[in-house]
Design goal:
single chain; alpha/beta; Arc Repressor Mutant, subunit A; Aspartate Aminotransferase, domain 2; Aspartate Aminotransferase, domain 1; 3 domains; 8-stranded mixed sheet
Length: 473
């Protein structure tokens, strides 16, 4: 643990200076402690290790540590080591305030357990923790025993082969392991794709409403998102052409549109593929929640209809296994496979060998499909329970993926309602921020159905209903 803490320090020893070496070392460590770079309880390196790192004697380090101990900044625990004291002086104001989370409109309160109605996290009580723990332990041991080599930056071949087999059966998508790149979730796959494609046009079609992270990613990469309306058949291709005829990339969620839950119709799929072929453009297919379709049968992947090699298919295990895995994948057309491998190797090679091996075993031995089947049954039960509490005004037609969309009046403040709900430990998601334009914005609340425990559901929904009534214009 101390290596990461001490790696932030930059010792600059002046061997000809007026200050002694022990005092210079003491001063550097003391400043790091007071400024919060060395946290409470951090273990400092041993005399021997730090002396070797700095090229001084062990006695010099001992003298510096003794002075830190006298200042009550560190405490020695004998053979266990030297640790930053738990009783620290107050940090200066510029360091006392915690920095904000990245993209705070998307990531909030990352240290707490999922809350009632929270969107985007799988059921905590439905996951086979004991079985998964045994697999992870076995795969961790296997990973440690592996030769000390650089892994394949595209991801472990055993996992890529299992994903290819799974996609062929479940999504009708025929591909080879060489077309698959293991990524750090959807965001990692999106980032790699934006680097991979060599686009002259910087304008990109995105769904409106659509996943806010996509717009952030495009902006950071220097692209301009062009919001294209979504209706009951999915993204409106003709309007996309009218809004940005020069675009050469479209990002869509055809299986279950996020956040409205509609499926992209066959007619629109064909129109989108024809547009990509005619313009030599590309389509990023975010296969959002395809495995967890609660109504009817999931449609085949858009990439399964692609005959011209214009679709890049992205999937993740965040909603089906765990978001903590940060494990996703992308399937590229064969013509892009070599360049995709090079891009991954240079910019974002796959990591987390134990997790990759564990998911491969989970897929290979049939546990994954059984788990999906159990989770769908559980989510259907929780959907029905929520609909029962909501009464006749609610409809299964308002189901959007694994959320229920609670429509609000056009002049309602869904953002304020969601913010007020936090005081009751509720986490509905407001719908309006998913819209990229200020016209034709629908107001509503997305109620996640995955973590609805029966004892808390009735009280939680009643509190939410009271909040909606209180904020009604």
């Amino acid at each position: 643990m101390y290596h990461s803490a001490m790696s932030r320090l930059r010792f600059s020893l002046d061997r000809q200076g007026a200050q002694s070496l022990p005092e210079q070392i003491r001063s550097s460590i003391a400043d790091a402690i007071r400024q919060g770079h060395l946290y409470e309880g951090a273990r400092l390196p041993s005399w021997r290790d730090l002396a070797a790192q700095l090229g001084v004697s062990r006695g010099t380090i001992k003298a510096a540590y003794d002075r830190l101990n006298d200042d009550q900044l560190v405490i020695s625990k004998g053979a266990a080591g030297t640790f930053v004291s738990s009783a620290l002086p107050a940090a200066p104001k510029e360091f006392a305030a915690a920095s904000r989370l990245p993209l705070p409109d998307l990531y909030q309160d990352l240290d707490s357990a999922p809350k009632l109605f929270q969107v985007g996290v799988p059921a905590q009580d439905g996951f086979p923790f004991k079985h998964w723990s045994r697999i992870m332990l076995r795969c961790s041991r296997q990973a440690v025993a592996e030769p000390l080599r650089y892994p394949d930056p595209r991801g472990e071949r055993v996992l890529r082969k299992e994903i290819a087999a799974y996609l062929a059966v479940s999504r009708g998508l025929l591909c080879s392991a060489d077309q698959i790149i293991i990524t750090n979730g959807y965001a990692g796959a999106l980032g790699l794709t934006l680097h991979l494609l060599r686009l002259n046009s910087r304008r990109v079609w995105v769904e409106n409403p659509g996943y806010p992270l996509t717009g952030h990613a495009l902006s950071l990469a220097g692209y301009t998102a062009v919001p294209v309306p979504v209706d009951d058949q999915g993204i409106c291709v003709e309007q996309g052409i009218a809004l940005a005829a020069d675009a050469r990339l479209a990002i869509v969620t055809p299986s279950q549109q996020a956040p409205l839950g509609v499926q992209l119709s066959l007619e629109r799929r064909q129109a989108l593929l024809a547009w990509a072929q005619e313009k030599a453009g590309w389509i990023i297919e975010d296969d959002y929640l395809s495995e967890l379709q609660l109504r009817g049968q999931a449609t085949p992947a858009l990439a399964s209809l692609d005959r011209d090699g214009r679709v890049i298919h992205i999937g993740t295990f965040s909603k089906t296994i765990s978001p903590r895995l940060r494990l996703g994948f992308m399937v590229v057309p064969a013509s892009l496979s070599e360049r995709a491998g090079d891009t991954a190797a240079a910019l974002s090679p796959a990591s987390g060998l134990p997790g990759q091996l564990a998911v491969a075993e989970f897929l290979r031995d049939g546990h994954y499909l059984r788990h999906i089947r159990r989770m769908k049954r559980l989510y259907i039960q929780r959907r029905d329970a929520l609909l029962a509490f909501m009464g006749p005004s609610a409809s299964v037609n308002n189901i959007a993926g694994l959320s229920l969309l609670l429509p609000l009046d056009d002049n309602a403040d869904d953002v304020a309602i969601a913010e007020a709900a936090k005081a009751f430990n509720l986490a509905p998601a407001p719908l309006s921020p998913w819209y990229a334009t200020h016209t034709q914005v629908r107001k509503g609340l997305l109620l996640g159905m995955t973590n609805l425990s029966s004892p808390a559901l009735e009280e939680g929904y009643q509190q939410l209903a009271e909040l909606v009534a209180r904020y009604r214009p």
